[in-house]
Amino acid sequence: MKKEASVILAKCAQDKLYGIRIEKRDNDWVRTWAFKLKEETAEKEGFDKINFTGSFYTDEEYPGCPYCGAKKCFVCGNCGKVSCYDGSDKVVCNWCGSNGTAADDDGKLDVSGGGF
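and the corresponding structure tokens:
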């Protein structure tokens, strides 16, 4: 049986791009793997144009960000892009610089990959 999978574009606090492989399991998306990614490759593969809505969870084997090791990430309320999350109360988007206070969610997220 073929698995439904895709890649979410994310950015580390070290200002480096990486891809997060997500896999459909039942009706949820699960983060299964992360890998370093160059801007040119992300654009060529169309990762910057991928958008997802749904529940996102983390597989136990998920290695986290390939640069800082963060296993958590957050979606910016301003630009909709994904950044590493270190678990602190304050968050700063690694894409647009917006900052705010972290809040628990219900697992439902809108994820957008556009623009570098």
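(Above: one complete record from the training split.) DSSP finds one helix and nine strands in the chain.
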